[in-house]
Design a protein that fits this description.
This is Ketopantoate hydroxymethyltransferase. By secondary structure, the chain is mainly beta. The protein is about 15% helix and about 50% strand.
Length: about 90
Amino acid sequence: MIAQTYLNELTTYTNTKIAKVVLNDTVEITSFLLKSTTDNVLTIEYLVLMGTVATVTKMELKSSAGAVVSTRTVNVPIIEDTIMRHVITLEEVV
């Protein structure tokens, strides 16, 4: 079993690695409304302004060097300013 304190450290490390969100391989967002950790849960929120993209089809969380931390295929129409939220829980899989 992985100690809770170690999971918390990994969550904090992951938080420091994520520097930007890239939407549809073209739009970079580096300003976050919320970027925080609580225990082993990382929460990131950011604003996608209407007109930036018509529909978000791909979301990537990336490091400052451009390495992909997480990627997700989605289908989110942006018909008004939209707050996007990522919740990442680090846990042991048995």
